[in-house]
Structures are given as C-alpha cells and as structure tokens.
Amino acid sequence: MLMRTDPFRELDRLTQQVFGNLPGTWSRPTAMPMDAYRAGDEFVVAFDLPGVSPDAIELDVERNVLTVKSERRPMVAGDNVEMQVAERPFGVFSRQLFLGEALDTEHVAASYDAGVLTLRIPVAEQAKPRKIEIGAAEGEKKQINA
Fold first, then answer.
1. Which of 20, 62, 76, 121 has its CA 20 to 30 A from that of 132?
2. pTM score
3. Which overall architecture, per CATH, does domain 29-76+88-125 show?
C-alpha cells in the first residue's frame, strides 16, 4: 500500500474540523472547481460537485450574477462510527460568476451527470459577430474601364 502524507492538507483538514464546525463560529462556503469556455454561440461552465445530490444544488441568476450553491453532507454518521480517514470535504459549496452583457441569462440550460454540473449560456443575439455591408457613397459614380 502506498501512502502519501501532506502535512499542510492535514493541518487544513484539522483546522476545518476544529474551527469550522463550532457553533457561533464563522466559516465561509468552500469554492467548487470549475472550467469555463466558449463553444460556438454558447458559453459553457462545468462545476465539479462529486457526491452531491441534484436536489441539493441551487442555481440562481440575478441581473448578471450567476450563483451556484450546493451542500454535501457526511455519508457516515452514528455513535458507533470511528472515522479513520476523512479527506472528502463536506458542508456548503458556493460559487458566483459575473456574466457579461453579451450573454443571454434568460436561457441558461443546466444538466448534472457523474458529479459534474454543466451550464450552457447562449451568447446574446446582439453580441454575435455579423457582417456589415458597405455601400457606395451617394453622388459618387463608378467608373468602368473598357
């Protein structure tokens, strides 16, 4: 068996366990990893949310701010449970994205598969590239050489 020890990860985990779960203490929601890219006429954002039930995900858009919030609860609980290793984070996860005016926030599509929440946000019609026709100025005559 191969074991890899990261003392800073252990320190972070212990700090979260000690201070993050005490009543009356403030703890901020953990950010979720994401990828974002443009594919043609839509903007795609994928969030990693492994182990989160689709019912525990909230998705809100207000003006140009998109908020994704989820909660993952510990899978093991009980009086007779003695945890040996606890590296998987649980609690509230949150992420806010500020969307540009070029995106159509009225038509956001969301899907959740294999622990990945994928959002597809279309580019607004007025932001899509378009050709502009150039006309001849009035009063100018075209000359044709024969």
1. 121
2. 0.66
3. Sandwich (2.60)
